[in-house]
Amino acid sequence: MNTEYTESKIKNTNLVYEPYTHILCDNVFEKSVYENIIANRIDEECLQTLNELGRVGNGYSTQRKVLSLNSKLTILPENQREFWEPFSHWLLTDFKNIIIDKFNITEKYHVDILYTRDYKGYRLGPHTDSPKKILTLLFYIPKDGDKSLLGTSMYLPKKENFICEGNKHHDYDSFNIFKTLEYIPNRMFGFVKSYNSFHGVEEITDDVERDLIIYDIQKSN
To answer: Which helix (H) or strand (E) is 91 found in, with range?
Structure first.
């Protein structure tokens, strides 16, 4: 992996502080790396719902399926492991150091990485994320830009000064969309968890699939 390329991209991308601290970095991975991500798209039979993995309660949508990239990827075919194992290791080591430096994270933490696929019917109401989160990065990994409307939305509460500690998904009607980040190839959107880091996903109404990598930096217990 070309650490210098990605480090330069992120280092030269400014943080934005409205409506909360976030970053938007295009072409975050070198072209050849992104081509390998697309060529090694993970098959559906290797994915499970968050409910099946015991990560969420029964009320969470089953239209999202994931595979953890933190551990040995023995479920994958050998030819795909040849890419995903070293790439995942890089995300957990050199890439992690780039992010820790960029966001000046000083508290104890651990990293959780999920290869994720959302299907028709998936929706995620405005929320600020779990209190244990420090930072979330979303890597959009579509084959092309035809599904650009499927990006993550940033929300502003209609009620002035409304905040939320986390762990609750709110009704869309109580918020206005501040901005929807287009779902385009090789884009990274990241934000710092705060009491006003409201974000979510408008319902996917078309018969499409939305692939991304979710990279969470969480407080260590």
So the answer is: helix 78-92
